[in-house]
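Researcher: Checking consistency across runs. Here is Phage protein again:
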Amino acid sequence: MSRTPTRDAPAVPGVPWIATWSRERKSTALLGGRRGKGLFYVNEGPADRDQFGALWARQSQRIGQGTAEFAGIHPRRQRRAMEELLCQVCGLPADVSDLGVLWMEPIHPGDPRSEVTTHPPVCVPCALQARARCPRIRRTGAHVVRVADPRPNGVFGVFYYPRLAGGLIAEEPMDKRHEDGEVRWVLAHQMIMRLSGVTPVDLDDEYDRYLATSPAERTASLRGTTPRRRHHRETAIPSAFTTS
Ligand SMILES: [Zn+2]
């Protein structure tokens, strides 16, 4: 896998950027654990941990190779989408307005919108595509919100514990907050964000705004300074959305 932060390959139209492909191999071959310290890689590099010290699962990057796995989430791309506020579908900067970053999540009937999520944000064109084509959103609708203060809150991943005789035993995947000491024994697969300063919005109104603003205004950082990327590629509208 790539050990230094580089620009990941663009999304393939019709497949969410954070979805995995069948030729993207996972590896725990060099994973170890030490009592009192937690998990580590024998050949660990800076990119293997997030800014809070959680160790991340390794998976090669081969977007577009083999078959798309819509139910799979690529750890590195999901993490990048959260850390850099990229659209989970196209991988380009998520849409930002005065009210914050655009988020869209399927409604779970009977449940209120959760304050924490593993779903990264979206851009307006991808949100429109999702509303039109995602079977789950068409069935139950979606929460469409602006988030003024999205912050990493923890990770979702496999919990390991060390055997007395050496080696590791894998448990079921679970959520752990970054400040929980047990996070040292979780191999992170997805970043969890806490969404604060949430304003419900109407997606059609957001589209009107999208059409009326420049790419730089739509992708400027939350701090209102520099655009995150040079420009928003208008052609990268996916033709479908995840079916999960
Ligand atoms: Zn997008």
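Researcher: Does this match what you'd expect to see?
Model: One thing to look at in this run: The CA atoms of residues 216 and 230 lie 8 Å apart.
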